[in-house]
Write a structure and sequence with these properties.
Elements (H helix, E strand, L loop, with lengths): L1 H28 L15 H7 L2 H34 L5 H8 L1 H4 L2 H12 L4 H10 L9 H11 L1 H13 L4 H8 L4 H12 L1 H14 L5 H7 L7 H7 L9 H29 L21 H26 L11 H4 L3 H6 L3 H32 L5 H11 L6 H14 L10 H11 L1 H12 L4 H9 L4 H12 L1 H17 L15 H11 L2 H24 L7
């Protein structure tokens, strides 16, 4: 009975943490002024204003277009990459998966900065190409560029789900196709990928949904041309009326949630259906990989080209920019090299503090987040109850809110509930926002680890009289300690790269690298942005290297 109380207490705390920000957002959307003003009235004025605003509808349509564009790019590329690595004799496929997953962990806003300094009108690589052919053949500040960059960066999401489905697929039909002379590409297009279509469709819905989360890429690449998506439109509403326009912002948040919640539900349905297509259960005999023949190295070059354009090019650009005084036509690299930008970071106490805070959030905050995720996962572990489904839906709700929305909603919670208001000026507010936003991801990590514990070990403890609480404390938790460490490393990587969630929670003493990058970019200080971005990439790179060295799987 005592453990039953623990279960309901944990579920109640999790539900309050997730639902309180959402309820407050809906409440604020029906007021005629910010909720903290002395006099407010229930009104539909905010809805009337936003729904009659041309910029809102432009941002909405642009968001849909970018979501559709990035889906059209990411889905075929991710599916092909999965087929090549899982089912063929592609060179280096044993070490390529960690490489393919790198874009998931590198901050999107850092990559966006990198594209600007590398491929912008006076970008480092743009100048080189212009010196060769006399013109820069691309425009990085365009709707098409935003969709292409976002699509390339989300290829790993499609890869993960397609690869997982392909690994659970029997090889009988592929063998039959090979016997009658089908080449690997015909096998992929007509046999393998159609059999995992539910997983591909799930990934497509996920990528389209992630289009509503985009903030850094459209902010950096779209703002110069006045291109707005819903998240950047929300960002620009902050002081539209001269005071915080919370009621208008709340309506935009409600619009985002109304669109994304059905997508979350559709993802769950598709994920359940994808299990029906697994044609190999338990132990199965693995066939030899499909031989690519003369296509082996062109296929490898295809993957290398995608990785170069997606990761190497922007990171190389921003790294080089951080070591030069200036850049432009006629500038010789050897004459402009400098370390001054890194020295300049030492002159800004808030930047030093931001670096330390980012490390603290990633290490200490990540550890506490894993503990929280573990407590919730233990509460529903092997529990045959309808409450488990309730928890499943609760942890998915934060996914319906982009990071910037979650940070804003949590800011309102701290302002609304006076007893916890002092926490707003501490790193606790940022940690709580990160933990809630990544609730579903953290739960998936821990729950997956718990399911690896053999049920008979827990049953043996119960047969000798151990209570449920003691079974969890003395059997389950000790057996998953290495899984918890692996989860902590992955959460560290996520927290260190996070940027949009902390924008509205940023304050003196609580700066982190991500939110500082957004602020510095707004001031046009490209030098500091470049140096700070390189430091952020170095932190993520070290974390990734440690995770790979310890054999941590880089996905849930």
């Amino acid at each position: 009975m005592r453990f039953g109380w623990y279960r309901f207490l944990v579920i109640a705390v999790a539900a309050v943490a997730v639902l309180a920000p959402l309820v407050l957002v809906f409440y604020q959307s029906f007021l005629d002024a910010p909720f903290f003003q002395p006099v407010t009235h229930f009104s539909l004025e905010a809805y009337s204003f936003i729904l009659s605003e041309s910029d809102f509808w432009d941002a909405f349509v642009t968001t849909l277009l970018i979501g559709a564009g990035m889906t059209a790019i990411a889905v075929p590329l991710g599916a092909i990459l999965a087929f090549l690595i899982v089912r063929t004799d592609l060179p280096g496929r044993s070490w390529l998966e960690p490489v393919i997953l790198v874009p998931i962990f590198v901050s999107a806003i850092v990559l966006a900065f990198g594209y600007v300094v590398a491929l912008g009108p006076v970008g480092i690589f743009s100048i080189m190409v212009k010196s060769w052919i006399g013109v820069v053949p691309w425009n990085i500040y365009s709707l098409a560029s935003i969709a292409i960059v976002a699509g390339l960066m989300h290829v790993p999401h499609v890869y993960l789900y397609t690869a997982a489905a392909l690994r659970g697929l029997g090889t009988d039909l592929e063998e039959a196709a090979r016997v009658i002379g089908a080449n690997p590409w015909r096998v992929a297009i007509h046999v393998s990928l159609p059999m995992v279509m539910p997983a591909i469709l799930f990934a497509a819905v996920l990528v389209f949904f992630l289009g509503f989360e985009l903030f850094g890429i459209p902010l950096v690449l779209g703002d110069p041309q006045g291109i707005l998506v819903l998240s950047t439109y929300l960002y620009k509403l902050t002081n539209l009326l001269g005071v915080p326009s919370y009621q208008l912002m709340a309506v935009v948040v409600v619009a985002i949630v109304v669109v994304t919640l059905p997508l979350i539900y559709l993802q769950r349905r598709l994920l359940r259906q994808s299990q029906r297509y697994v044609s190999m259960r338990g132990k199965g005999q693995r066939a030899a990989p499909l031989r690519l023949g003369n296509w082996r190295w062109p296929a490898f070059a295809f993957i290398a080209l995608w990785f170069f354009v997606t990761v190497v090019l922007p990171i190389a650009g921003i790294t080089l920019r951080s070591f030069v005084v200036t850049w432009g036509e006629g500038v010789k690299l050897t004459e402009v090299l400098t370390l001054d930008h890194y020295r300049a970071l030492l002159n800004f106490p808030n930047i030093e503090r931001g670096i330390l805070n980012t490390l603290a959030i990633g290490t200490i905050g990540g550890a506490f987040a894993v503990v929280g995720y573990t407590l919730v996962a233990l509460a529903i572990h092997r529990w045959n109850s309808g409450w488990v489904r309730f928890v499943d839906y609760i942890v998915m709700l934060p996914r319906a809110m982009p990071g910037i929305v979650a940070g804003l909603a949590l800011l309102w919670v701290f302002l609304f509930f006076k007893p916890i208001s002092p926490l707003r000026a501490t790193l606790v507010s940022l940690w709580l926002a990160y933990t809630i936003v990544w609730f579903a991801y953290g739960m998936r990590l821990i729950s997956g680890t718990l399911l690896q514990v053999a049920p008979e070990l827990e049953e043996a403890a119960r047969t000798v009289g151990a209570s449920e609480a003691r079974v969890m404390r003395d059997v389950s938790v000790p057996l998953i300690r290495y899984g918890m460490i692996a989860s902590w490393l992955l959460i560290f990587l996520i927290f260190v790269r996070e940027y949009s969630t902390g924008i509205y929670l940023l304050g003196p003493g609580t700066e982190v690298i991500g939110s500082l990058l957004v602020s510095l970019w707004g001031t046009g200080d490209v030098d500091l942005v470049s140096a700070l971005s390189v430091i952020n990439v170095a932190m993520i790179g070290i974390g990734l290297a440690i995770a790979v060295r310890l054999g941590v799987r880089l996905h849930a």
